[in-house]
Amino acid sequence: MPEFILKHKRSFILFLLFMILFWLVTVQVKAGRLTFMEKPVLSISGFFERVITGPFRFAESVVNGYFFLVRTERENGRLKQEVEELKLETSITDELLIENERLRDLLGFKKQHPPESIMAQVIAKESSPSSRTVTINKGADDGVEKDMAVITPAGVVGRVQTVLSGTAKVILLTDPGSTLAVRVQRNREEGLLEGKISTCALKYVSYYADIQEGDLLITSGLDGIYPKGLPVATVTKVTKHEASAFQTVLAKPAVGFSRLEEALVLRK
Amino acid sequence: MKSHIYIIILLLIVPVQASLFNPLSFAGVKPDLALAVLYIIGLLTGPVEAALAGIGIGLVQDISSASLIGLNAFTRGLIGLCAGLLGRRVLDISSPSNLIFLIAFSLAEGLFIMLFIQVFYGSVPIVNMFFTSILPNALYTGVLGILLLRFINSRRALNMLKRHALQKEL
Prior knowledge:
The complex is a heterodimer. By secondary structure, chain A is α+β, with helices and mostly antiparallel strands. Chain A contains three helices and twelve strands; from the N terminus they run αααββββββββββββ. Chain B has a single domain, classed as Arp2/3 complex 21 kDa subunit ARPC3. Chain B contains six helices and no strands. In chain B, helix 4 runs antiparallel to helix 5 and helix 5 runs antiparallel to helix 6. Chain B is elongated and about 70 Å long. The mean pLDDT of chain B is 84.
């Protein structure tokens, strides 16, 4: 036996390596993802990402600047009209907010304040076959912390996973490691939304729950990371299995991750 | 292959894939540079070296993403091993069959990861994902790989011609 091993030493070591890797993966499924060597590796890749994207961003800003000047007049007229419309909407919303606050006071509810945010640019989009993350150009120096929610006006993007001094890694909604508490806007049914690489799945939804295709899922605020009421995803497919107590619900994220360029990081 | 080339590959593969390849993204589908590079390493070296390169590249990808540490290292190590065996016994760098094998490796890896997620986490729409994500990614990666192989092959042919001319002169 030792002779056989010695004869095929390289193949044996390789086989052992594969066994260790597979064991490592299965251990993490139960115990959670390991984070060793994360900061040094991210510092190096973050440095090169900034070096590589720097000239591209500069060229992009020059080109965009030119087109911006060309379109300014037309854009200005459109924006003026939009501002007028928004002013009207704001005055109505202000009225509703005051009324809402007064009613909350009457009912003895705690006051809600909108969270402060940090504007960030997406500098890299990693898509290894088993994961979905992006890197933003704001880090610990700008006040970004682990587990802060990341959003756009369209809805939830994900949460901060790792923070370095000048950059941060954001785990997207579609990553298999992402879970967030949501509710159906229409009827307030609750569930947990998990990432499935290119889509999301709503878990632990009772067989009898009324969920329909096209329903909007919003954050419920129960996970302590995302504020309540943000749009998350739209239900695309509902399947009921006779043998299961739960139904399978697939949902498409509200944010188009392939076109994601800027995002807001919400301070806790 | 020389060790400094591997160091450069390990340092640059993730940032180049994540930033430089973003403009190549089409409807969320992006070619997998790491897989194409690994396949070429397999053809140019041998099974053991390519498997170790695959494990290295996969580990860097695992650490710098949100993936379970070792998952990409495992699949990429196996791909390196298979590409190395193919390069040693069946294919060479100029063979047109490289496109088919590269697509097949990408499909196999995508399906393995989907099945892994299905087994351990559940609720993966495998058929839907196969046609909307895994297959387009594999085709795109195959095309990128062939372009890279052609580039390397032309450089190799150029170097061989130069060497030949130099020998004649001498």
